[in-house]
Specification:
- Keywords: Membrane, Transmembrane, Transmembrane helix.
- The chain has 11 helices and no strands.
- The chain is mainly alpha-helical.
- The protein folds into 2 domains: 57 residues, no CATH class; 125 residues, Serine Threonine Protein Phosphatase 5, Tetratricopeptide repeat, CATH 1.25.40.
């Protein structure tokens, strides 16, 4: 229940800040409240609100949990098979063991053979972010941008680059990265709906941050 208490408290404080500090018009209260409820729904869907908090040092004693959902999304947006797919599968296997450095090195080996493969550059970006504990280091920034430059129309690099930026707290940069992808995605597609929802949440957080300054 701790997760729910924290989430509900933060939602209530955010709504209060928008009304009192941001002087949000009364006619927009329902829209903002609906957006916050959508955020809580996303937390319930993707998070673990029922889990109790745990100290950081306890988690660091074991290898970082491999993000299977993230890997599956990448496989859905990038190459599954062929030479690049084999390198990515090997990297994923090392990632599952918590060997993030080795997972990135495997993809560097693959890029020596196929330096213009956007899927390997995308995988390297993800692996470098995982190795940096969620931070987007310059090396990951370069890898994502290299993948985008090789295949500008591919949704994968832009999607995962934006996701890494959002998770590291760079909300405006994530929004800027995702907006062109939303505009080019087919109407009714899952990725369009997902990113529209994510951008709406980002707008609320950015508005609250601006109101608090």
């Amino acid at each position: 229940m701790t997760g729910w208490i924290i989430a509900l408290t933060l939602a209530a404080l955010l709504m209060l800040a928008l009304i009192v500090i941001g002087r949000m018009p009364r006619k927009t209260w329902e829209i903002a409240a609906a957006a916050l409820l959508l955020g809580l729904a996303g937390y319930a869907w993707q998070g673990n609100p029922g889990l109790a908090g745990a100290p950081r040092h306890a988690a660091s004693a074991a290898p970082e949990k491999f993000d299977e959902q993230l890997a599956e999304r990448r496989r859905g947006l990038a190459e599954r098979f062929g030479p690049a797919g084999q390198w990515l599968l090997l990297s994923d296997g090392l990632g599952r063991q918590g060997k993030t450095k080795e997972a990135a090195n495997v993809l560097l080996s693959g890029l020596k053979q196929m330096p213009n493969d956007p899927n390997l550059w995308l995988g390297l970006g993800n692996a470098l972010v995982a190795h940096a504990d969620g931070v987007v280091p310059p090396s990951a920034d370069f890898a994502y941008r290299r993948a985008m430059a090789i295949d500008p129309k591919a949704p994968g690099p832009r999607y995962f680059y934006g996701l890494a930026l959002a998770r590291s707290g760079q909300l405006q940069a994530a929004k800027d990265m995702w907006t062109p992808l939303v505009e080019s995605a087919p109407d009714g597609s899952g990725i369009k709906a997902e990113l529209q929802f994510a951008i709406a949440r980002i707008d609320i957080l950015l508005a609250a941050d601006g109101a608090g300054r």
